[in-house]
Amino acid sequence: ASGFVQPYNQPDGIYVCFLIRIVRWVANNSSPPVIKTLGLEMNLFHFRDKEFGLRSIKERRLKISRIMELNDPFEFLGASLEDREFRKAIIETKKQLSKTTGLLCFSQKWQNPVQWSHYANEHKGICMEFEVPDQFIFKVNYEEERLNVESEIDLQTMYRYLTTKFAHWSYEEEYRLFITLDKNEEENGLYFSDFSENLILKKVIVGARSDITRKELSGALGNLKNQVEVFKARPAFKTFEVVRNKNEKLWA
Question: Mean of the per-residue pLDDT values for the chain?
Fold first, then answer.
């Protein structure tokens, strides 16, 4: 059968091919389904600890996350798996996708203190702001309950299955960029995505508890130091937020 719509009672192999086609669609720089883009850039944030954050800046690249190594076992399993055949197809698809596809994870905001605690070594690391074309970005959806399996599964439905997480993750306000893994670029089992016109470093925010010095960060930035804004963060005085420390004298 042609097209994207497939009835639910088809062999599970169809689902495998179907899901792989979706993620490859994005990895090959096509516009994500459902999201209507305007050809604009989004400014998104990526948290790292001190060691790997500075290394990312110095090497001008980000480590690509692997699907099977993400910290949520429900990743890509947003739909109810009560039906045995559907469960088998989705789980197998996830395994297959992990062999060929990775992702970069971003947040819409940098001010959430929980993000700093979880992903920037308890505020001792950094947060990098990147400019990314919006047509490459997937927005993660958050739900209290698993999604029902539709009788007919089209592209929009499959997109929801792939990008739905439990509501308690909503503090992350996550966006994702899917990337095809190139075996020729593997480094000791790891993959990286270089800074480029589609991944432009715009800002580096140093955590409130970080001992990263201005000199240390400037050395990592090298010839980017005049193009990238840098500042240190602090806990806000009136809210549960992380904010910019405007007292420059407090950052050596």
Answer: 85
